[in-house]
Design a protein that fits this description.
The complex is a heterodimer. Chain A is α+β, with helices and mostly antiparallel strands. Helix content of chain A is about 45%, strand content about 35%. Chain A has three domains: about 40 residues; about 100 residues, Immunoglobulin-like (Sandwich), CATH 2.60.40; about 45 residues. Chain A has three helices and eight strands. The longest helix of chain A is centred in the N-terminal third of the chain and has 37 residues. Chain B has one domain: P-loop containing nucleotide triphosphate hydrolases (Rossmann fold, 3-Layer(aba) Sandwich). In chain B, helix 3 packs parallel to helix 5 and helix 5 packs parallel to helix 6. The chains are: A alpha+beta, B alpha/beta. The interface between A and B is medium-sized, with 15 and 16 residues.
Chain lengths: ~200, ~160
Amino acid sequence: MDTNTNNHMLIKIFFVASFLILSLIAVIINESSFVRAVQPFNVDIDLPATYKEVSSGTEIWFTIKLLNLANSKRVDVTLNYELINKDNVSIVHNSKTVAIETQASFVANLALPANAAPGDYYVHVTVSSPAGESTARASFKVIEKMNVMIFYYAGAGVLVLVLLIILLVKSGPLIEKMKLKMKIRRIVREKLKNK
Amino acid sequence: MTSQLIITSVEKLQNDIVLKTKSFKGKIGIYVSLNKTQKSTEEMLNKEGIDTSKLFFIDCVSKEKVREDVLHIGPEDLNMLSTAVQSFIKDIQGEKFIIIDALSTLLIYNNENKVAKFVREVTDYASENNVYVIAFSPKTQGEELLNKIFNFFDNVEKK
């Protein structure tokens, strides 16, 4: 009896253990599927250095690089790209549908509104596909227009200054001639006053 | 005739200048002095009984400013010299004459072409304004230049 009881116990333990192991495997497999469903694509935004600091009204160009992690067959995906402010409010948005097999790059642009306040902003990209959504973001800064313009004004100022100096040097003989003419006029007037 | 080039010997140069200046008695003149300072030229003319009160001197020898009514222009600055002569012609009303004493001196400081250009500018402007120009040059100096500028004068007198 004892031997039978022990065998039954062992069999039960074996089944329970098997069940637990199988359940664990199932959970792991499901977990993997879940991850794949959440981020089916690796999304990368390439924002050139020239757009890291911009003034309002600038058209921002960037490249969206997609890598199909599932490495499955060709699928149509929707690219939603937008500019969002630091409060996560979308201020400009656009989208397009593209086909992707393993990997692809797309150039996109969004115009920053002329009234965009200075501060931190993000280019936010969402890739939607039947397998799920993937996102990425890249930050940039909007600075006051004056800060950018001041370099142009300074440059223009220097240019005007250089032109003035050149003009002054070039007109030197002309000024000398004018002085000479005025002196002669005075000499003639003085000398012939009493004649 | 409004312009004359007188080529004479060095010995006779001073005498010829005196005679010519005397011939303009009573008229207003512009004297471009390239050989002597204004002071010594004026002394020389006064000694010969010439009234210099109606002469405007451009002294190209001395840079020292002694009198307010005398211009000092370096002989190398033909541009300014030409401007000064033209300004005097423009500002002096009535009949007037110009004496250039002596043209060949300019060759020491400038090349022939520049001097020729200067002569042309002065004679042209004088001709347009009916001003008599007499330029002197010693016989032995600047023959190449003289050949270039003969045509700018209405009359060339070789003594």
